[in-house]
Amino acid sequence: METIKQRKQTAVYVYEAPLRLWHWVTVFSIITLCITGYFIGSPLPTMPGEASDHFLMGYIRFAHFTAGYIVAVGFLGRIYWAFVGNSHARELFLVPIFSGKWWKEVGHEIRWYLFLEKTPKKYIGHNPLGQLSMFCFFVVGITFMIITGFALYAEGLGRGSWADTLFGWVVPLMGQSQDLHTWHHLGMWYLIIFVMMHVYVAIREDIMSRQSLISTMIGGWRMFKDDKPD
Amino acid sequence: MPQSIETFYEVMRRQGITRRSFLKYCSLTAAALGLGPAFAPRIAHAMETKERTPVIWVHGLECTCCSESFIRSAHPLVKDVVLSMISLDYDDTLMAAAGHHAEAALEETIQKYKGKYILAVEGNPPLNEDGMFCIVGGKPFLDQLKHAAKDAAAVIAWGSCASWGCVQAARPNPTQAVPIHKVITDKPIIKVPGCPPIAEVMTGVITYMLTFGRLPELDRQGRPKMFYSQRIHDKCYRRPHFDAGQFVEHWDDESARKGYCLYKVGCKGPTTYNACSTVRWNEGTSFPIQAGHGCIGCSEDGFWDKGSFYDRLTNIPQFGIEKNADEIGMAVAGGVGAAVAAHAAVSAIKRAQHKGDQE
Questions:
Q1: ipTM of predicted complex
Q2: What residue ranges are annotated as transmembrane (chain A) (predicted)?
Q3: Does residue A2 fall inside a structural domain?
Q4: pLDDT tens digit sequence for A55-67
Q5: What is the CATH number of domain B8-227?
Q6: CB B271 to CB A178 under 8 A?
Q7: pTM of the model
Q8: In the CATH scheme, what is the code of domain B232-312?
Q9: What is the pLDDT of residues A30-64, one digit of tens each?
Q10: Which residues of A touch B220 (CB under 8 A)?
Q11: Is A5 part of a structural domain of the chain?
């Protein structure tokens, strides 16, 4: 005899609209930044004809700078939202590293990823391991890219420009302009690795954990797949 | 001994320079310094009234390319003007005296013009073995440098050696050569980097200091803003080809003959702060990019240690075998990709097993 499985889904509203909008705007901006950034470092094959007929590098760089501005303004907006949004909007920035319980759950989550735990825990927001890696990869990575990016942009704007005043100090900090370029380039790969893991983990958790993930970042609602306690 | 020194103007007249030529020189210098025409009379006035500034020019570990460049300055002409403008009291490569006489001249200048002379440093001191890798007058150059710097009004770091360290400080730097700001910490230092610096930049910096009696405005790294505020790339005459996406791919291709941008063959113009693309070299005749070779970034810190002069992306030596950011990034991303695929496969198997358990 087959018992009828009880799969009552409960739902919580987690990600508010501005936060979701920010997420997807940042997604498309980072894709644009990686592609254009790669082609700034290693340009496409040479263009034929007169220089006045083309503006390829100009357009690529324009797209890069525009997307960079969008990411930077978006990130500032995201920080603002951490103050005015719901409690989940703060998870990205406030990692409870002084909480023993939280670290214990990080350990639990690591064991779950090493296939040593049979069932994962339920979380309304990020799971502790997710929260930790979001901070280390995304918050640190994007902050580094915004600062080094605008320091590079300041080189074009020139001495005394707003970007030079705010970020010009980064150039001697890294050594010289060439080193800054290299660090910014490595930063791109850091973010690409973040995106790879982020997408994989989101899909995997969506299938294997006890709550929804991908649809949550679209609609905002976290669905739970069972009624069992945490 | 005559205590009052001649003014610049007196020296120039004594050397047979007409007043007309003198005024022409003043307006050319004003233009070279990026000053308006109103400044030409001010320069003339300063030169007519001011005493010459004593300069001590010392040489550490170096190749003398800075001196070679300096003596080829066209505006102002070094032969007639600069060696008279400044009172070059000690410069072991240019002065007639040698040996004990030369060292005596150095001592005399230091004693006589305490706190008033400019110390120009070409090359840099090695610190290893107590400075024994560079001996001047029987003593380590390090000692001479510290001694001469003690009573200097200001210090000019000529070239990339004095400013950054240059080739003798390149990895592995066996003599522990260091830029002079590591040794002289209590004096204002004007860095005039380049290997060598442009002659007109060198004389321009000196003229500015003599004319206005103060240091030129310096940027964060201590370089005069008037010559080091822009990258070669910002004012390069090949820049339209860069913006259009027209690049030299090989040294013998059609693009090279057409004079396209040298970015892809490793030109360091976009990361190099210098005045080559505006002032140019040899009386404004040419500069490396105009001659068809990319900039090697000789006025930038540590330019010897950034991999090949012909690669766009910098090698990162920390990874043993030198790799650039893309090679490292792709390797790590490949590793993460493989890990993700393996983890996904195990997850799928586990899930299938788990499903079996439930049913």
A1: 0.88
A2: 21-40, 60-81, 132-154, 183-203
A3: no
A4: 999 999 999 999 9
A5: 3.40.50.700
A6: yes
A7: 0.87
A8: 4.10.480.10
A9: 999 999 999 999 999 999 989 999 999 999 999 99
A10: 168-169, 171-172
A11: no
